[in-house]
Write a structure and sequence with these properties.
single chain; Hypothetical protein af1432; 17% strand
Length: 517
Amino acid sequence: MTFELQSSNKNDSDPKLIASVDLGSNSFRMVVAQIIETASGYQLRPVDTLRDPIKLAAGLDGEKNLDADAFARGLNSIRRFGERLRSFSPMQVRAVATNTLRVARNASQFIHQAELALGFPIEVIAGREEARLVYVGASHGAPANTGNRLVIDVGGGSTEFIIGYGYEANLMESLYIGCVSHSQKFFVNGAIDSYSFKQAELAARQEIQILSKEYRKKGWDQVIGSSGTAKAIAELIVLNGFDGGGYSGFDASGLITRDGLENLKGSLIESEHMQSSKLIGLKPDRRQVLPGGLAIMIAAFDELKIESMEIVEAALRMGVLYDFLGRSQHHDMRFVTVEQFMKRYAVDIEQAMRVEQLATMFLEQFPMPEHEDRMNNLALLGWAARLHEIGLSISHNGYHKHSAYISANADMPGFSKNDQARLSALLLGHIGKLAKVSSSNNFIDWHMLFCLRLALVLCRRRMHEEIPDILVQSSQNGYKVSIPKKWLDNHPLTEFSLKKEAEDWQKIHRNYIVDLY
C-alpha cells in the first residue's frame, strides 16, 4: 500500500519563509517562520518548530571533548532538522552554535559532520554576539517599554545579561554559568541539599559581580527572562502555587517573583533528590538541569536587586531570524560594526573605499561557483578592504598582524566566529609573504585574497587616479592579470610591485601571470 503526501499551498522554497537553527548547550532548536509584510514594517510568524533536549554540555569530558554519546545525540538531532529544511535554499536558513561548541576541543569535527547532516553552514557565535541576538529576539517578543530593558537568558552552558533600549542592545555580557554545567557541578546525580544550593548561588553571584555595578548604574525599567530555563521556572512557580496567588492574572509562563523563586527552591531542597520531586508540571528533560538554572536565577535576582521578571517565548532562535531578516533588507549589523571600527581606529576612509571598489570589481570578474554566496563574499571582501589598516593604530611595523589579531579577537556585533576568522585571514595575508597564510589552519579564500592584494598594489599611491581596464582570470593553479602595456610603462612602481607579487605567489606554488596588451 502506498500513499502520497499532499503539498501545502506554501512551498518551502518560497522566499517568504526563513528558518533558524540554534545548537544550544541544553537543547537544539529550529524554527521556521513566515515573513509578514505590514504597513509598519515586517513581522515573523512561526509556522513550525522543533526542539531536542540534547544536553550537549553534559557530554563534555574532563578534557573538554564531546564524548561519543553526545556527539551521536547531536548529529541525530541535526539529521532530523536537515530533513525538515531539505527544500530550503541557503538564503533562507541561518544556523548558529553557542557555548558548548565554543569550548569543546573537538568542536570542529562535530561542526563538519553537522553541516553535512544539516545541509547548511553552521556559525559558532561568540558570547557577546549570542547576547546581542538573544536581546534582538526577546525585545521583539517583550511588552512595550519606554525605558531601558534588562534581558537575562540562562542557557545550558552560559548565561547572557543584556541591557538595551528598543531593539538595540547597549551592554552585553556572556558568563560561563549555565543550567547544565551548574547542575553537574553542584547537584551531582540530582542530589539536593541546602548547603549545595548555597554554594551554587554563591558561585553564580561571584560571576555576576563582574557586571553588577555597571549594570545597576545603567539601570532599567523592565526585566525580561528568555530561554527554556526562565519559562520552566515561571511555569513551576505558578502551577505549584509558589507565587502566593497574587499574580493569577498572568498565565503560567508570565512572571517570576523573588518569593516564587525561594518557594520553589524550598520545595527542591525538601525533596532531597530531583527524582523524588513531586512538582506539578516538571518535565522529564528538566529534572537534571532545573536546580542549576534555579540557583543562577536566584543569584541574578540577588546580585542585581531584581524584584520580578516577565517571561517571553522569543529568544536566541528568534533573534537569529530577525537579524537574518535585517541582513536581507540591508540592515546588516555587520556594516554598522565595520563603520564603528573605522572610526575607532581612525581609518583613512578614502583609501579604504578605493581598495574596496577595485577588490570587489575584480572578484565579480570570476565565475561564480555553484555553492558560493557571492553577495556575502563581496561584503566580506569589502569589510576586509575597509579594515585592513586598523592595525596602524598600534604600529606600522607588522601592522597587518595587528589588524588580523584585532579582527579575530575583538567583540564584533553581527559577526560569527567564522566571519571573524575569514576576515582575519584576509587581513593577515593582504600584504607580505603568502607562506604565513598558506601554512595556517584557517580557511583561505584565495580568490578574495588575490583580489585584495591586487587592489592594494594598484592603490599604493593613496590618491585618486584613473585605472585602466584590468582583466583577471583564474586557472586551476593560479591567476592571470591582463593590463595595458602603455599604462604600465608609465607606472614603473606598479610594474615592480606586480613582478614581486608574482614571485610571492610562485613561492607557494601558485602561478601569477602578468599579461600585457
